[in-house]
Amino acid sequence: MINISLIVCTFVSHKIKKMQLEFYKYQGTGNDFVMIDNRTEFFPKENTKLIAQLCDRRFGIGGDGLILLENDLDTDFKMVYYNSDGNQSSMCGNGGRCLVAFAKKLSVIENETTFIATDGLHHATIGIDGLVSLQMIDVDTVKVSPDYVFLNTGSPHHVQLVDDLENYNIKENGAAIRYGDLYGKAGSNVNFVKQIDDTTFSLRTYERGVEDETLSCGTGATAVAIAMNVLGKTMETAINLNVEGGKLVVSFDKKEGQFTHVFLKGPAEFVFKGTIEI
Ligand SMILES: N[C@@H](CCC[C@H](N)C(=O)O)C(=O)O
């Protein structure tokens, strides 16, 4: 005879089995991330709902994204990035800089590293001022249209100059472009820009996968710097970017329309550490 109560108990105890998840919270110019040391590969990477819940600012820890630090055979570590909607996505510049600071906190690296991310190898250094400088992918294709520029700096970016950046409705206008005909199902991140002086631009970014404005976007700042150089708005190859959450600097070498040695530099700071039951 089958013992029904045993089956029910096993089912119930299986259902309520919880685990303590240790996390670290980092931010880079206000672009914030839940960081998890997944070198033992314990994290349920396919659980989109869980990742979205951990990033939720009311029901979870809160963050624009979640990043796993994993082992890699050929480099110091591997970066696995998820947007706050729970889906794995393309490169995150600020997240990469924060992950470098996290790797140092875990003693995986000291002040210099090479790691692997979805768009390839990244070299990075941590300065004595604590600023993290991250090498981004080379850029050789920049699409210039009358009203905007499109380029991929590890993630896709639409760049558009606007008159009244301070009062511009980033969420509404960004979403219209992200979901519009231009970029199809994949969509794009959308950056609105204002020139401040010869070497400085302010930008506000609508991020795909967060589906809202974030306080900063590293691949976005990189895209804006290159786009402004291509448009002839600046002749400089080291450009200051004011984002809502602080300041970034993007530098590059330019030769025959190719952008190489592209570096994104700025703060990457530990905020707090904790455990959450999942
Ligand atoms: N905040 C990031 C960009 C993250 C990726 C983006 N949301 C996408 O899915 O394309 C950055 O700092 O670059």
UniProtKB/TrEMBL annotation:
Q: Which domain of life is it from?
A: Bacteria
For whether the record's keyword set contains Cell membrane, the answer is: no
Instruction: Provide the active-site residues from the annotation.
Output: 92 (proton donor), 92, 217 (proton acceptor)
The pathway this protein participates in, as annotated, is: Amino-acid biosynthesis; L-lysine biosynthesis via DAP pathway; DL-2,6-diaminopimelate from LL-2,6-diaminopimelate: step 1/1
Extract one GO molecular function annotation from the record. diaminopimelate epimerase activity
Record protein name field:
Diaminopimelate epimerase
Query: Which key words are in the record?
Result: Amino-acid biosynthesis, Cytoplasm, Isomerase, Lysine biosynthesis
- Report the family membership: Belongs to the diaminopimelate epimerase family.
* Subunit structure, as described in the record: Homodimer.
Q: What class of enzyme is it?
A: isomerase
Compartments it resides in: Cytoplasm
Catalyses: (2S,6S)-2,6-diaminopimelate = meso-2,6-diaminopimelate
User: In the Enzyme Commission scheme, what number(s) does this protein have?
Assistant: 5.1.1.7
Protein's UniProt keywords contain Amino-acid biosynthesis: yes
Which residues does the record give as substrate binding sites?
A: 31, 83, 93-94, 189, 207-208, 218-219
Q: Which NCBIfam families match?
A: DapF
List the GO cellular component terms.
cytosol
**Which purpose does this protein serve, as stated in its record?**
Catalyzes the stereoinversion of LL-2,6-diaminopimelate (L,L-DAP) to meso-diaminopimelate (meso-DAP), a precursor of L-lysine and an essential component of the bacterial peptidoglycan.
Q: Where is this site: Could be important to modulate the pK values of the two catalytic cysteine residues?
A: 157, 207
GO biological process, alphabetically ordered: lysine biosynthetic process via diaminopimelate
Segments passing through the bilayer: none
